[in-house]
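Quick one, T. Sequence first:
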Amino acid sequence: MTALNETVYPQLLPEPKPRELSDHYTPTDAELAWARRNATTPLKRVGLLILLKCAQRLGRCPLIREVPRPYLDHITRAGGLVRNLRRDELQPFDQGQNRQNYVDQVRKRMGIRRLDDEAWLLQRAQEAAQTQHHVSDIVNVLVEELIHHCYELPGFSTLVRVAVKARDLVEEAHYAAIAAPLSADTREKIDKLFTISGSGTSAWNDLKQEPAKPTSTAVREYLDHVRSLQKLAAGLPPLNMIPVTKLTHYQLLARSERANEMRELKPNKRYALAVIYIKSCLSRALDDAGDLYVRMYGKMQAAATRQLREYQVERSMEVEALLARFRETLVAYQVEGDLKQRMHAIDVAVRNEAAKLIALCDEHLGFSNNNSLPFLLQQYDYTDQGFVDPTKDPLVRQVLRVIRATDPAIEKRARPLQLELLQAIDRWLEREIAATGSRLQRGAVLRLKRDRALLLLAFWRGFRGDELLAMLVENVDLRPGVGLTWSLSRTKTNQHQGTNFSMPALSRLCPVTAYEAWATAAGLADGPVFRSIDRWGHLGPDGLHPNSLIPLLRRLFRQAGVPEPEGFSAHSLRRGFANWATDNGWDLKSLMEHVGWRDVKSAMRYVDSSQEAARLRIERSLGALPLASVRPPPALPAPSTAEKLD
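Structure tokens:
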């Protein structure tokens, strides 16, 4: 039952404050004059004033016996009587025709009328019940409507009764509108939800056990949940004719009902609540899936944008070189002379590298307008989302085996960096560092020193690109003139515990000296050893991305004048050291321990068979053979006389 204090229905307080009595229950001179004109005795005037002042605050004329004593005493004294009235003296104002006459005078004075048409009130209550489901809220709307239309407020119980009736009528209409379009198959499907199994559970109770919000590692399971809800919601009618506030109320009502309680409801209500709850579950699941997609995409987009920035910083020198070459071409086009002379000048400017320059332009144009899509695609790995890898399917594997058998592909290997080329590149770097340092170009000097340390360290240690770029300054112990030691928390062949590395100082092509020069010039204190550098010499906070290592090396080789730099990659340094060590007498075990290989097959893939070494082995074998063991070819028979004549 709705309580009176839960609504705005006006009421009198048992102990009002003096300020309230003085402000709202003191008759004005006009009201006193009105009471004198309509009442013949002081007692009747006081009774009339009590009804008037209470009606002004309550919107209705109460029974005087229900008015608390403080109100009676205050209005009595304000009405001109020097004593307080007894209850029995005011009793005639609550009975018979006298009360009706006094109430009519008060209504006329206030300009209000009695509500005789309850159908009007029920209609207003039904309109309110379209969006309100609490009886107290419907009562509040009715009070406002009555005051707005200058009706005297009926009793509180009347308003509650009308509000309850209106709410029931509206909800029954909603239930009927939802249940009417349901087919027999759909009703049967819904009824099966309330069937309790032998274990005491039901599909309805399982439906109410909603899964937690999805995470990036449990996408597939949550999508299965969404598909099951979509299958369950198939054939259900739309709910756009129901206001949102009522739908929320119905959802809470359906969730509070157990399976056995749902079976006991009237059919229309049972089916309607089930439809509403199923569609609400599907809506929430789709919203959560959408939020998950937005979070995942935002994370991938941020990573792709960061990689694009690193790529642009690393390729800034290439862009400047392309602009310089383009300027040379334009200058060549403007030389004085005929068309043949201009074409010759342009050919000299291009230097027979048109195809390479076009390829570089196409590569840079692919990332124009901050296009991070290529890096965005690298962020997505469907196996991390719980999906089956299609390449593991037996049929797919069989098809791939047939393709390899019918059209075998030659394994592509990076071109090894020979020691002679390494020496030439290092001499070029030293010259450029000296020349650039004299021009006080901090960004260029830092980039050259970084590239020299990276090149020498990667070659002499045979490092993988990701291992080289994972080096942290705080894990490096530098001893000038002695050597360099450092540790990596994880490598490709050791994923679970750290690995220590060391590099002694060398008499020439020394990676220890190169590292010391780079760390000192850059002021490295902590963080990644090898970082991006902008044109003003500012170091990036993060390490170089592994994808930027190959372009960095090719740019370096191209600037140093190495022919065909596109044939080199990060593995070129690893293969170059492996070949150098093998040619200089390193046994396979020592090579594997130095580089970090655990598998002999992996090591052999990096070692090329030397033609010179093979020739020496064959010559040594030939020299060990005795001469007698080499038989001369048999002599041809002498020609006959007839043959001589022919």
